[in-house]
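Z., the sequence and structure:
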Amino acid sequence: MPIRRRTDTALSPVKSRRKPLIIGLAIALVLVVGGVIAWWLGHRSDDDPTTVTKTNTATVQRGSLAAGFKLSGTIGYGDAEPLSGASTGIVTKVP
């Protein structure tokens, strides 16, 4: 006599809810582990925490940061070259 399997439709909604729950938990686990690793990498120190770093200091003085100088010469552009095209105007930028 062949064995019949029970086909209970009441169990199918449970199975259909289980897969998204497992996927959601797996995604949450990956995000938590990734966050812990990112936090640890951002807060770890390569130096020995018992060593003290010497800090150099200097006295602050007020003054002017402006500087100027004079030069002789002429400011200009390169030689003018004629351009052929359908439009008229001034070329300000060439790609």
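The longest helix spans residues 12-43. The chain has a mean pLDDT of 78.

Let me know what you think.
H.
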